Amino acid sequence: MPPHDIPLAVADTEARFSLIPPTINQRDAGLIRAVGTGALAAALVNMVIGAGIFTIPSALAAAMGVYAPLAFVICGIAMAAIAICFAEGGSRIPSSGGAYGYIEAAFGPLTGFVTGNLLWLSGVLACGAVASALADMTASLLAPAWFAGATHAAVIVGVIGVNAYVSVAGVSQSARLISIATVIKLVPILLFVTIGVFAVHASNLSLAAIPSPQDIGRGSILALFAYSGMEATLGASGEVAEPAKTIPRALLMAMVAVAVIYVSIQTIAQGILGGALGEATTPLAAAMAAVHPVLRVMMLAGAGFSMLAWMSSDFLGNPRILFAVARDGFLPQALGRVHPRTHTPHVAITCYAALSIGLALSGTFAELAVLSTLATSVVYVLGSLAAWRLARQSVALAGPPLNFPWLGTAAVVATFSMIVLTALASWTEIVGIAALVGAIVTAYGLQAWRRAPQPDYEQV
């Protein structure tokens, strides 16, 4: 973006705060700000309420029994604090890459590099997990056993390929598709709640033995995976209209709706199935089957459509993080290209799709989901602290920011909860995420060394 296109408020802010990298104004060049509050809120709900809620209730029940809804309540409180911090940071520096952009502004290029890579890696892991789950369900329902492998692969390539194509076609088209898909996918979920509440047996909700710390830890990680996703959608912040107002409003609308839906679903499923919930492979469908067989079919169809709709939001946000990191010179320049006709980061979207297909073909839902969640928890800590720092420095590049009065408290709650959650993971998983961060830091060091000017030794 040429200097004369930079608003005076932005230029004044940059002059006052040297921690803002000049690349931020260049990062969104060529993009169109066309995503409004309703569309962003729909994308957030669509992204957060994905395939997980159709499968996670059984895993939560197996780990925590009747106390499973508390996992959604506790993680909901933690996610509320995180969402406040992300809304604050996003309202102050609304740029492509979302949290990556404002974390880099607050803590510098190394932390930004770590954040950007963790974001798109966790996104690609989650996309692979959802595509794998959808392919498993489709193959088991529609394909004979001898053709299940080929069906599994075809579904993965097909659904990811279609979503990538729509995302490349234009951000306005993607936003409209997401808004429609979100409404459709919420229909079976709302029917589950409104019908299922009348089939609940109070005895199935009676208190039992308190689960072990290990089971609480596993349940909390799964609940957090169900809540995660807002950071990916905010990757499209460079294409949000009036971002200082739109981002906080959309986050508030979306996260409140998600928390109410999750607690309701887990409680009703437990109330219908009781102890059998922990053994159900398709928990919501199993619960509805206890009411009427037709409702079971409806829930299976809803689960499949929810996975498809989730991918549409995923492709709106996560490829933009790859794009933003490339625009800042930390990844190959080709990933930072914008399509001349559709004004979308088509190379980043295509690359993201290829990586997602590879992971989906090689992994399973549970393995990819846990890895994605732990990587995301690191980003949540960095994003919360970055928002607090930017507020302390009074940085605002797009008009008056959120200015949440208790931002410091929210940052402390968010950081502490993510540290506790990570500590509850297995040592193998903790070492794995630490090794990943170490590898990203090493890659940054190598890039910095290559960029450093080399001494020019003259021959004597």
Task: Assign the CATH topology.
Answer: Amino acid/polyamine transporter I
Backbone CA Rg? 22 Å
The whole-number mean of residue pLDDT values reads: 80
Low-confidence stretches: 1-20, 456-460
Beta-sheet strand percentage?
under 5%
Number of domains: 1
Give the helix level as a range of percent.
over 70%
Polypeptide structure, described:
The protein has one domain: Amino acid/polyamine transporter I (Up-down Bundle). Helices cover 73% and strands 0% of the residues. The protein has 18 helices and no strands. Helix 3 crosses helix 9 and helix 7 runs antiparallel to helix 16. It is globular.
Describe the structure concisely.
With 460 residues, the protein is mostly helical. Helix content is 73%, strand content 0%.
